[in-house]
Design brief:
Length: about 80
């Protein structure tokens, strides 16, 4: 299947993706501020733009909903 699909919005709200990010993959200046944390959660637009980094998955979903976005988990 090679058809493009515009996911657009769900319930009138833009979809954002929540995914885990290993702290080791982040820039040094970010890692220096995190202490012993090994994983953060990123909120991304459907185009891949990172909107936020937060400490836990629950907070990422809460943050997205508070900004009228529809969060979806990415594995």
């Amino acid at each position: 299947m090679d058809a493009k699909y515009d996911f657009g919005t769900e319930n009138g709200r833009p979809i954002v993706y929540v995914r885990p990010v290993k702290v080791d993959d982040l820039p040094e200046e970010v890692r220096a501020q995190l202490g012993g944390i090994e994983t953060l959660y990123a909120v991304h637009t459907t185009e891949g733009e990172r909107l936020a980094l937060v400490r836990d998955r629950k907070m990422a979903f809460f943050l997205a909903r508070q900004h009228d976005m529809e969060p979806v988990a990415v594995h």
